[in-house]
Amino acid sequence: MKIGAPRETHKGESRVAMTPKSAQELRKLGHECLIETGAGTKAGFTDEAYREAGVTIVEDAAKLYETADIVVKVREPKDEEIERLSKGKTLISFFYPGQNEALLEAAKTSGATVIAMDMVPRISRAQKMDALSSMANIAGYRAVIEAGSNFGRFFTGQVTAAGKVPPAKVLVVGAGVAGLAAIGTSTSLGAITYAFDVRPEVAEQVESMGAEFVYLDFAEETKDGAESGGYASVSSPEFREAQLAKFRELAPDMDIVITTALIPGREAPELWTRDMVESMKPGSVIVDLAAEKGGNCKLTVMDEKIVTDNGVTIVGYTDFPSRMATQSSTLYATNIRHMMADLTPGKDGTVVHDMEDDVIRGATVTHDGEITYPPPKPKVK
Ligand code: NAD
């Protein structure tokens, strides 16, 4: 099959879905690779590097969509990109079918098969294709770097001839994939790191990374933090009050707060209130990784960095993976390459779209002119 990666059209997007290295792997599966000219430039991959990896450079998107059997992309397609698809073609990209009904309908009408990377089931076997986790990992790391670049002091404490410097205190709210990456980055930079999650079972992971888990004095904690399929559910009002009271106590002492708390299918819970921001020291930094879902911090402005009257910087960027485009493209392209490996069991360039396979079935949102989202519950745990 011919696998082609177009240039991303979303404003400010620097990632690309195929790297020279992933193309070499795709070719070992018996596929041919194409890329639109310049598609990898912002991620640090030149046309020359693709050419050396045996990739054919195509002059524009129209030609790419016309030639490729399988189009691989990062961002969900725009209408004009969907219009370039047709029966017999496959698109593999982030798609968010639950939030993009019209797009899903358009994909169905096109007759193309769409594999949504955000719908890959989060089961052990599919970890190598879990693009949500690879991007969340980068976002967590980058959130700390972003905080550091807006913070006027060291993370680590130092005793120097010019004076003693105290370590920074960092609080990470939400210890999922992004939160754990933020915790790891923060502790490795030498900050005193605290973390909180409604799922108390993550405490051990947090502590093993050298951070301190913030416990609440709340009897129902384990019940309220109960998982639903490994994810958080909405907290009771009493639990939420206990959580906010603890955060209020911590706020004046924290230099950096990284919020990552999300509940699938809902707006982000508001956990860092105006009075908490107002009680923080001037020069403190909040990075709100939940900005796209409304933000965990009351004062976050999506896609912007603001400084409050009391001198607290609040970063609400939503493009952290794109800000590390070389790394994120490398991991994302590897996730896609693994998906293609599962779709090419004979390693002979022939795609077998096995709708009996939980992972392929779970991620396929249109197939044979039908909408196949939502998928049935996976059989494998
Ligand atoms: P997410 O992005 O949906 O949420 C981020 C974190 O916010 C979660 O840890 C959640 O518990 C927390 N949170 C929600 N409400 C909160 C609140 N009020 N206060 C504090 N924290 C709050 O989660 P995610 O990073 O995508 O992963 C969540 C779960 O999925 C974890 O259990 C993770 O281990 C699991 N997971 C499994 C796999 C796999 O098996 N392949 C892959 C990735 C993630």
From TrEMBL:
One of the GO biological process terms: NADPH regeneration
Name by which UniProt lists this protein: NAD(P) transhydrogenase subunit alpha
Tree of life domain: Bacteria
GO molecular function annotations of the record: NADP binding; oxidoreductase activity; proton-translocating NAD(P)+ transhydrogenase activity
Domain Alanine dehydrogenase/pyridine nucleotide transhydrogenase N-terminal: 4-139
Subcellular localization, as worded in the UniProt entry: Cell inner membrane
EC id: 7.1.1.1
Keyword S-adenosyl-L-methionine: no
Catalytic reaction(s) noted: NAD(+) + NADPH + H(+)(in) = NADH + NADP(+) + H(+)(out)
Function noted in UniProt: The transhydrogenation between NADH and NADP is coupled to respiration and ATP hydrolysis and functions as a proton pump across the membrane.
Record keyword Transmembrane present: yes
Single GO cellular component term: plasma membrane
Topology versus the membrane: Multi-pass membrane protein
Keywords associated with the record: Cell inner membrane, Cell membrane, Membrane, NAD, NADP, Nucleotide-binding, Oxidoreductase, Translocase, Transmembrane, Transmembrane helix
UniProt source species: Fulvimarina endophytica
Similarity annotation: Belongs to the AlaDH/PNT family.
Residue span(s) of domain Alanine dehydrogenase/pyridine nucleotide transhydrogenase NAD(H)-binding: 148-316
